[in-house]
Amino acid sequence: MDTIPVKGPGDQLLSAEYNNAPQEAMNFVTDTGQTLSGLDLHQTSKAAAIYAAVGDFYTDSGAADAYVLNLVTPRQGPIIYANGMRIRFIPGNVNTGASTVNVNSLGIKNFKDVDGSDLIAGEIEANGFVEAYYDGTNFVLIQSSSFTLPFSDALALIRNEGDPTKLIRFSGANITAGNERLITGADKDIDMAPASQAQAIAGTVDDQYLTPKSLHDASVVILQRVSVFDGAFNSGTTVIPSDNTIPVITEGDEYMTLAITPIRTDSKLKIDVVIFCATETTTMAATIALFQDAVVNSLAAVGQELNGTADTATVSFSFEKTSTTTSAQTYRIRAGKDAGGGTFNFNGKGGTALYGGVSASSIIITEYI
Asked: Could you give the CA distance from residue 13 to residue 7 in angstroms, rounded to a whole number?
Protein backbone atom coordinates (compact mmCIF):
# COMPACT_ATOMS: atom_id res chain seq x y z
CA MET A 1 0.00 0.00 0.00
CA ASP A 2 1.34 3.43 -0.93
CA THR A 3 1.80 5.95 1.85
CA ILE A 4 -1.19 8.26 2.01
CA PRO A 5 -0.08 11.85 2.64
CA VAL A 6 -1.17 13.35 5.92
CA LYS A 7 -4.61 14.85 5.49
CA GLY A 8 -6.40 17.30 7.67
CA PRO A 9 -10.09 18.05 8.25
CA GLY A 10 -11.79 18.95 4.99
CA ASP A 11 -8.93 17.55 2.83
CA GLN A 12 -9.86 15.22 0.02
CA LEU A 13 -8.41 11.76 -0.85
CA LEU A 14 -7.33 11.29 -4.39
CA SER A 15 -8.97 8.37 -6.15
CA ALA A 16 -5.65 6.45 -6.24
CA GLU A 17 -5.22 6.96 -2.51
CA TYR A 18 -8.77 5.90 -1.77
CA ASN A 19 -8.52 2.77 -3.90
CA ASN A 20 -5.45 1.44 -2.05
CA ALA A 21 -7.43 0.25 0.96
CA PRO A 22 -10.10 -1.80 -0.83
CA GLN A 23 -7.45 -3.14 -3.22
CA GLU A 24 -5.48 -4.51 -0.26
CA ALA A 25 -8.62 -6.25 0.99
CA MET A 26 -9.37 -7.68 -2.45
CA ASN A 27 -5.79 -8.93 -2.80
CA PHE A 28 -6.09 -10.59 0.61
CA VAL A 29 -9.10 -12.53 -0.69
CA THR A 30 -7.74 -13.46 -4.12
CA ASP A 31 -4.34 -14.50 -2.68
CA THR A 32 -6.15 -17.39 -0.99
CA GLY A 33 -7.58 -18.61 -4.30
CA GLN A 34 -11.03 -17.10 -3.92
CA THR A 35 -12.90 -15.31 -6.68
CA LEU A 36 -14.26 -11.92 -5.63
CA SER A 37 -18.02 -11.89 -5.26
CA GLY A 38 -20.31 -9.07 -4.29
CA LEU A 39 -22.77 -11.64 -2.98
CA ASP A 40 -20.34 -13.05 -0.35
CA LEU A 41 -19.65 -10.63 2.48
CA HIS A 42 -17.40 -13.09 4.39
CA GLN A 43 -14.52 -13.51 1.95
CA THR A 44 -12.01 -11.65 4.11
CA SER A 45 -12.76 -13.85 7.13
CA LYS A 46 -12.49 -16.91 4.91
CA ALA A 47 -9.12 -15.66 3.69
CA ALA A 48 -7.96 -15.21 7.29
CA ALA A 49 -9.09 -18.77 8.11
CA ILE A 50 -7.18 -20.16 5.12
CA TYR A 51 -3.97 -18.39 6.14
CA ALA A 52 -4.39 -19.60 9.74
CA ALA A 53 -4.87 -23.18 8.56
CA VAL A 54 -2.24 -23.54 5.84
CA GLY A 55 -0.29 -20.29 5.74
CA ASP A 56 2.83 -22.04 7.08
CA PHE A 57 2.68 -25.00 4.65
CA TYR A 58 5.26 -25.05 1.84
CA THR A 59 6.33 -27.23 -1.07
CA ASP A 60 9.87 -28.59 -1.23
CA SER A 61 12.02 -28.26 -4.36
CA GLY A 62 15.38 -28.92 -2.71
CA ALA A 63 17.67 -31.94 -2.40
CA ALA A 64 18.66 -34.31 0.37
CA ASP A 65 20.05 -32.32 3.32
CA ALA A 66 19.30 -29.00 1.57
CA TYR A 67 15.58 -28.32 1.58
CA VAL A 68 14.15 -25.39 -0.39
CA LEU A 69 10.64 -24.35 0.63
CA ASN A 70 8.34 -22.45 -1.72
CA LEU A 71 5.01 -20.77 -1.18
CA VAL A 72 1.85 -22.50 -2.30
CA THR A 73 0.69 -19.84 -4.77
CA PRO A 74 -1.10 -17.49 -4.86
CA ARG A 75 -0.66 -17.08 -1.10
CA GLN A 76 1.83 -14.53 0.20
CA GLY A 77 4.67 -15.46 2.50
CA PRO A 78 6.93 -13.94 5.16
CA ILE A 79 9.59 -11.44 4.11
CA ILE A 80 11.90 -12.02 7.13
CA TYR A 81 12.70 -14.84 9.50
CA ALA A 82 10.90 -14.14 12.79
CA ASN A 83 11.37 -15.83 16.14
CA GLY A 84 8.61 -18.46 16.54
CA MET A 85 7.93 -18.73 12.81
CA ARG A 86 6.57 -22.18 11.96
CA ILE A 87 7.06 -24.23 8.79
CA ARG A 88 5.42 -27.44 7.60
CA PHE A 89 6.25 -29.36 4.44
CA ILE A 90 6.44 -32.75 2.73
CA PRO A 91 10.11 -33.41 1.89
CA GLY A 92 11.12 -34.85 -1.45
CA ASN A 93 14.23 -36.56 -0.11
CA VAL A 94 15.41 -38.37 3.00
CA ASN A 95 18.20 -36.63 4.87
CA THR A 96 21.60 -38.30 5.27
CA GLY A 97 22.81 -36.16 8.18
CA ALA A 98 23.04 -32.47 9.09
CA SER A 99 20.54 -30.49 6.99
CA THR A 100 19.57 -26.94 6.02
CA VAL A 101 16.43 -25.17 4.86
CA ASN A 102 15.76 -22.04 2.79
CA VAL A 103 12.23 -20.69 3.27
CA ASN A 104 10.70 -18.40 0.64
CA SER A 105 14.20 -17.38 -0.55
CA LEU A 106 14.94 -15.70 2.79
CA GLY A 107 18.30 -17.44 3.18
CA ILE A 108 19.74 -20.77 4.34
CA LYS A 109 19.23 -21.84 7.96
CA ASN A 110 20.32 -24.99 9.76
CA PHE A 111 17.93 -27.67 10.98
CA LYS A 112 18.55 -28.71 14.59
CA ASP A 113 17.08 -31.26 16.97
CA VAL A 114 15.43 -30.19 20.21
CA ASP A 115 18.71 -30.71 22.08
CA GLY A 116 20.58 -28.39 19.68
CA SER A 117 22.40 -31.15 17.81
CA ASP A 118 22.48 -31.65 14.05
CA LEU A 119 20.01 -34.05 12.50
CA ILE A 120 21.07 -37.67 12.08
CA ALA A 121 20.42 -39.73 8.97
CA GLY A 122 16.78 -40.65 8.39
CA GLU A 123 15.13 -38.10 10.67
CA ILE A 124 13.54 -36.49 7.62
CA GLU A 125 11.78 -39.10 5.51
CA ALA A 126 10.98 -38.67 1.82
CA ASN A 127 7.25 -37.99 1.33
CA GLY A 128 6.76 -37.86 5.07
CA PHE A 129 5.66 -34.84 7.08
CA VAL A 130 7.96 -32.32 8.79
CA GLU A 131 7.19 -29.51 11.21
CA ALA A 132 9.72 -27.07 12.65
CA TYR A 133 9.92 -23.65 14.27
CA TYR A 134 12.48 -20.84 14.09
CA ASP A 135 14.24 -20.11 17.40
CA GLY A 136 15.95 -16.97 16.22
CA THR A 137 18.98 -18.83 14.84
CA ASN A 138 17.95 -22.25 13.55
CA PHE A 139 14.86 -24.22 12.60
CA VAL A 140 14.17 -26.77 15.36
CA LEU A 141 12.58 -30.04 14.25
CA ILE A 142 9.52 -30.74 16.39
CA GLN A 143 7.79 -33.41 14.31
CA SER A 144 8.80 -35.87 11.64
CA SER A 145 6.83 -38.82 10.33
CA SER A 146 10.10 -40.75 10.07
CA PHE A 147 11.00 -42.52 13.30
CA THR A 148 12.49 -40.57 16.18
CA LEU A 149 13.55 -37.42 17.78
CA PRO A 150 16.99 -38.06 19.28
CA PHE A 151 17.28 -38.81 22.97
CA SER A 152 20.04 -38.68 25.52
CA ASP A 153 20.84 -41.80 27.57
CA ALA A 154 18.39 -40.61 30.26
CA LEU A 155 15.74 -38.35 28.75
CA ALA A 156 12.74 -37.08 30.73
CA LEU A 157 9.89 -38.02 28.45
CA ILE A 158 6.92 -37.02 30.59
CA ARG A 159 6.80 -34.47 33.41
CA ASN A 160 3.89 -34.20 35.84
CA GLU A 161 2.32 -30.73 35.43
CA GLY A 162 1.25 -30.56 39.06
CA ASP A 163 4.55 -31.82 40.44
CA PRO A 164 7.55 -31.35 38.09
CA THR A 165 9.68 -33.60 40.29
CA LYS A 166 7.62 -36.57 39.03
CA LEU A 167 9.17 -37.82 35.80
CA ILE A 168 8.90 -40.84 33.55
CA ARG A 169 12.33 -41.48 32.08
CA PHE A 170 13.59 -43.70 29.29
CA SER A 171 17.18 -44.91 29.48
CA GLY A 172 19.07 -45.80 26.34
CA ALA A 173 22.44 -46.18 28.06
CA ASN A 174 22.61 -49.94 27.52
CA ILE A 175 21.52 -49.99 23.87
CA THR A 176 24.47 -51.00 21.70
CA ALA A 177 25.37 -48.43 19.07
CA GLY A 178 23.78 -49.17 15.70
CA ASN A 179 20.93 -51.23 17.18
CA GLU A 180 17.22 -50.52 17.26
CA ARG A 181 15.02 -51.72 20.13
CA LEU A 182 11.26 -52.05 19.81
CA ILE A 183 8.95 -51.34 22.75
CA THR A 184 5.46 -52.67 22.23
CA GLY A 185 2.67 -54.16 24.27
CA ALA A 186 -0.85 -55.47 24.36
CA ASP A 187 -3.79 -53.17 23.64
CA LYS A 188 -4.56 -52.61 27.31
CA ASP A 189 -3.67 -50.49 30.30
CA ILE A 190 -0.64 -51.72 32.24
CA ASP A 191 -0.49 -51.34 36.02
CA MET A 192 3.05 -50.19 36.78
CA ALA A 193 2.94 -51.76 40.24
CA PRO A 194 4.93 -55.02 40.11
CA ALA A 195 2.97 -58.24 40.40
CA SER A 196 3.65 -60.36 43.48
CA GLN A 197 5.01 -63.89 43.36
CA ALA A 198 1.61 -65.15 44.48
CA GLN A 199 -0.03 -63.39 41.51
CA ALA A 200 2.56 -64.85 39.14
CA ILE A 201 1.94 -68.35 40.47
CA ALA A 202 -1.84 -67.92 40.30
CA GLY A 203 -1.53 -66.82 36.66
CA THR A 204 -4.68 -64.69 36.73
CA VAL A 205 -3.15 -61.20 36.33
CA ASP A 206 -2.02 -60.09 32.86
CA ASP A 207 -1.75 -56.31 33.22
CA GLN A 208 1.23 -56.09 35.60
CA TYR A 209 4.92 -56.81 35.22
CA LEU A 210 7.41 -58.90 37.19
CA THR A 211 10.71 -57.81 38.68
CA PRO A 212 13.36 -60.14 40.15
CA LYS A 213 12.51 -58.79 43.59
CA SER A 214 8.77 -59.28 43.25
CA LEU A 215 9.33 -62.74 41.80
CA HIS A 216 11.56 -63.68 44.72
CA ASP A 217 9.09 -62.22 47.22
CA ALA A 218 11.13 -63.49 50.22
CA SER A 219 10.42 -67.06 49.12
CA VAL A 220 12.44 -69.76 47.40
CA VAL A 221 12.53 -69.41 43.63
CA ILE A 222 13.72 -72.45 41.72
CA LEU A 223 15.99 -71.51 38.82
CA GLN A 224 16.55 -75.00 37.44
CA ARG A 225 16.58 -78.68 38.35
CA VAL A 226 18.68 -81.47 36.83
CA SER A 227 18.68 -85.16 37.68
CA VAL A 228 20.01 -88.59 36.88
CA PHE A 229 18.28 -91.88 37.70
CA ASP A 230 20.27 -95.09 37.49
CA GLY A 231 18.80 -98.57 37.92
CA ALA A 232 21.68 -100.58 36.44
CA PHE A 233 23.62 -103.07 38.57
CA ASN A 234 27.26 -102.41 39.39
CA SER A 235 29.75 -103.50 42.03
CA GLY A 236 33.21 -102.75 43.37
CA THR A 237 35.78 -103.70 45.98
CA THR A 238 37.77 -100.47 46.42
CA VAL A 239 37.92 -99.43 50.05
CA ILE A 240 36.71 -96.23 51.70
CA PRO A 241 37.88 -96.41 55.32
CA SER A 242 35.14 -96.07 57.91
CA ASP A 243 37.14 -93.78 60.22
CA ASN A 244 37.50 -90.13 61.21
CA THR A 245 39.13 -88.97 57.96
CA ILE A 246 37.54 -87.17 55.00
CA PRO A 247 37.02 -89.58 52.08
CA VAL A 248 39.18 -88.71 49.07
CA ILE A 249 38.48 -89.10 45.37
CA THR A 250 40.83 -92.08 44.93
CA GLU A 251 38.85 -94.13 47.46
CA GLY A 252 35.82 -96.27 46.60
CA ASP A 253 34.33 -96.71 43.13
CA GLU A 254 32.30 -94.17 41.13
CA TYR A 255 28.66 -95.10 40.52
CA MET A 256 26.81 -91.94 39.44
CA THR A 257 27.67 -88.47 38.08
CA LEU A 258 25.59 -85.40 37.28
CA ALA A 259 26.62 -82.06 35.74
CA ILE A 260 24.95 -78.67 36.16
CA THR A 261 25.74 -75.19 34.83
CA PRO A 262 24.48 -72.68 37.41
CA ILE A 263 22.51 -69.67 36.21
CA ARG A 264 23.75 -67.36 38.97
CA THR A 265 26.88 -67.17 41.09
CA ASP A 266 24.95 -66.34 44.27
CA SER A 267 22.38 -69.14 44.00
CA LYS A 268 22.19 -72.24 46.18
CA LEU A 269 22.65 -75.79 44.90
CA LYS A 270 20.74 -78.48 46.82
CA ILE A 271 22.05 -81.96 46.00
CA ASP A 272 19.81 -84.88 46.93
CA VAL A 273 21.27 -88.40 46.71
CA VAL A 274 19.53 -91.78 46.91
CA ILE A 275 21.49 -95.02 46.55
CA PHE A 276 20.16 -98.61 46.73
CA CYS A 277 22.92 -101.00 47.86
CA ALA A 278 23.86 -104.28 49.51
CA THR A 279 26.86 -106.59 50.05
CA GLU A 280 27.70 -109.58 47.96
CA THR A 281 28.77 -111.96 50.74
CA THR A 282 30.13 -110.70 54.03
CA THR A 283 29.00 -108.12 56.54
CA MET A 284 30.64 -104.71 55.93
CA ALA A 285 30.47 -101.03 56.76
CA ALA A 286 29.83 -99.18 53.50
CA THR A 287 30.57 -95.47 52.90
CA ILE A 288 28.85 -93.33 50.26
CA ALA A 289 30.58 -89.99 49.49
CA LEU A 290 29.81 -86.96 47.31
CA PHE A 291 32.59 -85.27 45.31
CA GLN A 292 32.75 -82.24 42.98
CA ASP A 293 34.75 -82.33 39.74
CA ALA A 294 38.31 -83.46 40.53
CA VAL A 295 38.44 -81.94 44.02
CA VAL A 296 40.27 -84.42 46.28
CA ASN A 297 38.19 -84.19 49.44
CA SER A 298 34.54 -85.17 49.47
CA LEU A 299 31.78 -82.63 50.16
CA ALA A 300 29.67 -85.02 52.24
CA ALA A 301 29.66 -88.68 53.27
CA VAL A 302 27.36 -91.16 55.06
CA GLY A 303 27.81 -94.75 56.24
CA GLN A 304 25.64 -97.88 56.22
CA GLU A 305 26.13 -101.24 57.93
CA LEU A 306 25.39 -104.13 55.53
CA ASN A 307 24.88 -107.61 57.03
CA GLY A 308 25.90 -110.10 54.40
CA THR A 309 23.48 -111.18 51.71
CA ALA A 310 20.52 -110.82 54.08
CA ASP A 311 20.35 -107.02 53.98
CA THR A 312 19.70 -104.35 51.38
CA ALA A 313 19.67 -100.65 52.18
CA THR A 314 18.35 -97.48 50.62
CA VAL A 315 20.64 -94.68 51.72
CA SER A 316 19.68 -91.03 51.15
CA PHE A 317 21.28 -87.74 52.10
CA SER A 318 21.32 -84.08 51.02
CA PHE A 319 24.01 -81.45 50.70
CA GLU A 320 23.74 -77.74 50.00
CA LYS A 321 26.30 -75.19 48.78
CA THR A 322 26.59 -71.79 47.05
CA SER A 323 27.11 -72.12 43.30
CA THR A 324 29.94 -69.45 43.23
CA THR A 325 30.31 -69.72 39.43
CA THR A 326 28.27 -70.06 36.24
CA SER A 327 30.71 -72.62 34.83
CA ALA A 328 29.71 -76.27 34.52
CA GLN A 329 30.17 -78.41 37.64
CA THR A 330 30.09 -82.21 37.86
CA TYR A 331 29.04 -84.00 41.04
CA ARG A 332 30.11 -87.61 41.64
CA ILE A 333 28.93 -90.40 43.92
CA ARG A 334 31.58 -92.87 45.03
CA ALA A 335 30.96 -95.78 47.39
CA GLY A 336 33.13 -98.44 48.97
CA LYS A 337 33.43 -101.02 51.70
CA ASP A 338 35.50 -100.77 54.85
CA ALA A 339 38.78 -102.70 55.02
CA GLY A 340 38.31 -106.45 54.70
CA GLY A 341 36.70 -108.84 52.27
CA GLY A 342 33.47 -108.57 50.40
CA THR A 343 32.04 -106.64 47.47
CA PHE A 344 29.84 -103.55 47.49
CA ASN A 345 26.73 -103.98 45.32
CA PHE A 346 24.95 -101.04 43.65
CA ASN A 347 21.29 -101.65 42.69
CA GLY A 348 21.43 -105.30 43.68
CA LYS A 349 22.76 -107.83 46.22
CA GLY A 350 24.71 -111.06 46.26
CA GLY A 351 26.27 -110.11 42.92
CA THR A 352 22.89 -109.93 41.18
CA ALA A 353 20.75 -106.99 40.01
CA LEU A 354 17.38 -106.36 41.65
CA TYR A 355 14.10 -105.01 40.23
CA GLY A 356 14.97 -105.43 36.59
CA GLY A 357 16.79 -102.13 36.14
CA VAL A 358 14.27 -99.84 37.83
CA SER A 359 16.02 -99.51 41.16
CA ALA A 360 15.67 -95.87 42.16
CA SER A 361 19.23 -94.69 42.74
CA SER A 362 19.48 -91.03 41.81
CA ILE A 363 21.08 -87.59 42.07
CA ILE A 364 18.85 -84.50 41.89
CA ILE A 365 20.39 -81.02 41.91
CA THR A 366 18.13 -77.98 42.43
CA GLU A 367 19.42 -74.44 41.89
CA TYR A 368 17.42 -71.82 43.75
CA ILE A 369 17.59 -68.32 45.20
From this structure: 8
